[in-house]
Amino acid sequence: AKLSKQHLAEVYGRGEELVKACFARRPNYNDLVPALLEVGIDDELLIRCGLAMHIPLRPMLGGITRDLGDMLTKLQGRDFSCEFKYDGQRAQVHCDDNGKVTIFSRHLEVMTEKYPDLVALVPKIRSEGISSFILEGEVVAIDRESGDLKPFQTLANRARKDVVIQSVKVDVCLFAFDLMYLNGEELLNRPFRERRNLLRSLFVEIPNHFSWVKSIDATSADSDTVSDFFKQATDIKCEGIMVKVLDNAQNPELAVDMDLDPEEAPPPPAQPALTKTKKTATAKSRGKPIGAKEDAEDIADTTKAGTGRRKALLSTYEPDKRLDSWLKVKKDYNTTADTIDLIPVGGWHGQGRKNAWWSPILLACRNEENGTLEVVTKCISGFTDAFYKANKEKYSEDGDNTIARPSFVEYGGEPDVWFEPQEVWEMAFADITLSPTYTAAIGLVSEERGLSLRFPRFLKVREDKSIDEASRNSFLAGLFRKQEARAPVAQAGNGEGEDDLYEE
């Protein structure tokens, strides 16, 4: 019998989600393709392609909120944990039965050689009975004597490889916040409260070397306590806080509206949440995911159900998903009270749901002395879908508003397309940082480094300004000096992590 389009869409949709889930857990085609050829699109695929030592799983991501009030509204009626969002580098640490350690970045890059001091720390932090694990945390530059945290730019001073412990000049502390794998068993389907308890009870804290993220447990009724905690985080130069649901909702009425303000957060991911944590027997075989069959059933259920306006928040670990069960609340962009008017000069093809648009977009300020434009930053934050669409139409690849690489733009990189400079955008930002990548204001505050914006955010098009009225590099330098007078900013090192300076 001929299958209907709807039925085919359901079948292929379920298969697509299953493969995506497998690849998020084990992003290795050498494992995925043979398993697909052998078992096909089947529930067993999640078991065959579960977590593996020294193959990084894609990290879970946090949804974006406007402010603390927005976060408290989203998590109404739920128990949650608030954690300091440290200004460091996210790290995924693998240790196998033989004691081999591999450290991965949030972008799945191997950075074991960058942190030999953390590798040497592993035998000291695991208690007796722990044979293998995968944990996640934030690597932060620290003053060993005082315990004071240092900014991300200080961390960037470390070389990327061939680091010798004896030559380490930038000390670090690993602040652990999650445990995804323990002694051959996946913990992804366990509630966050349980994963956190295992982490804190089975690993040994070493002050200023290995510790837990600072956290408090709260509910939406504890607004004053949460506000005080947020202030504590920003007072010590954290980016803000992460807020995580502790337990799976037992009451379906505690589901949360997933219709987010498009200016403040991306739409819900195309991939549905995979897990409904159920009581299942502990997996006996090494590496078998707990509840893998339930994962596959949930994929089918979600595909059939379609998308609803409200979605239950789970406290499970969902690789490669940006869900409202994790929320980030960053310090207010407006605390700087400063904005800057920049000129969009180029863009890259977007990824995922943004692949039809330009994202990120390259922005520059003016050098009034020689008439050039000096690139300041890339930006992907603050744009609505409607704006993205209009911007792509305006700067279409075969249109009159795109040009060959211009000689008057100072930038060492190569975007996918160059824009004809013709408009001015007002931008907010969290901080200004010295940068080895961007050339803006080079020579005005540093002979070797330019200036860049940290967490740039689009505010509006300045219809009242021509490009000749965009901000000058001297204005940017003045903002930096004012900021430095308040709290000195460390110089960036070799440029690693430069892409982390614009919000994702």
TrEMBL record:
ATP-dependent DNA ligase family profile domain boundaries: 165-367
Biased composition (Basic residues): 276-287
Keywords for this protein: ATP-binding, DNA replication, Ligase, Nucleotide-binding
Classification via InterPro entries: ATP-dep_DNA_ligase, DNA_ligase_ATP-dep_C, DNA_ligase_ATP-dep_cent, DNA_ligase_ATP-dep_CS, DNA_ligase_N_sf, NA-bd_OB-fold
Highest rank taxon of the organism: Eukaryota
GO terms assigned for molecular function: ATP binding; DNA binding; DNA ligase (ATP) activity
GO cellular component: nucleus
GO biological process: DNA recombination; DNA repair; lagging strand elongation
Transport found in the keyword field: no
Region annotated Disordered, chain positions: 259-305
Keyword field contains Nucleotide-binding: yes
Family membership noted in the UniProt record: Belongs to the ATP-dependent DNA ligase family.
Name of this chain's protein: ATP-dependent DNA ligase family profile domain-containing protein
Naturally occurring in which organism (per UniProt): Hortaea werneckii (Black yeast)
